[in-house]
Design a protein that fits this description.
The protein is mostly helical. It folds into two domains: about 55 residues, Homeodomain-like (Arc Repressor Mutant, subunit A, Orthogonal Bundle), CATH 1.10.10; about 130 residues. About 75% of the residues lie in helices and about 0% in strands. The chain contains nine helices and no strands. It is elongated, with a radius of gyration of 19 Å.
Length: about 190
């Protein structure tokens, strides 16, 4: 029972640190975030922070690694999908919702644009492979143009969803993204 309690405490502590960090990152660049203010906002002491992370950059790296693993896992169904590879799965949007704090910080003025590029690269590789097998008649250049357009649109949808407090379920957003991709302006009718 003691292990469960300690595991729970670690999860709660890391959640408090993450929440404080992403809150600060929305307001200022990472190099301006001190451990002292992060710990004060999280309601923990500095030694607790240092038990888990070496500095704010280590914290950001570990958070991003966790999300990248989740995102890779969420992308797998797209690669396995044979009937409609254009569809964006609800699992991808659920992953983004589960990591909404990091998404908000990443898409904000002080976000890690390199991390955003990593997410897009994962999506790009998976989608290009899937689109190429589904749209065999399309040239690789057309597929790349399509992905560039769709990914920018999905980022816009994500930003709108975040701004709306992610009130709509992930499945609803995934369905809307799929319909927009398949129907274009006909989505509005």
């Amino acid at each position: 029972m003691k292990t469960f309690t300690n595991d729970h405490r670690v999860r709660v502590t890391k959640m408090l640190i993450r929440k404080a960090f992403t809150s600060l990152l929305e307001k200022k660049p990472i190099q301006s975030i001190s451990i002292k203010e992060l710990c004060e906002l999280a309601g923990i002491n500095r030694s607790t922070f240092y038990a888990h992370y070496t500095d704010v950059y280590d914290l950001r790296t570990k958070m991003e690694q966790e999300m990248l693993a989740d995102f890779n896992k969420a992308m797998r169904p797209l690669l396995e999908q044979k009937d409609n590879p254009v569809g964006i799965t609800a699992g991808i949007f659920q992953c983004l919702k589960d990591n909404s704090d990091l998404c908000i910080a990443t898409l904000g003025d002080f976000g890690d644009k390199q991390f955003l590029m990593q997410l897009l690269s994962i999506g790009r590789d998976a989608c290009l492979q899937s689109y190429a097998s589904y749209f065999a008649q399309a040239s690789p250049k057309k597929i790349e143009y399509f992905y560039a357009f769709v990914s920018a649109g999905c980022i816009g949808l994500l930003q709108k969803w975040l701004a709306d407090g992610m009130a709509a379920p992930a499945e609803e957003l995934a369905h809307a993204a799929e319909q927009i991709m398949l129907q274009g302006v006909g989505f509005l009718q």
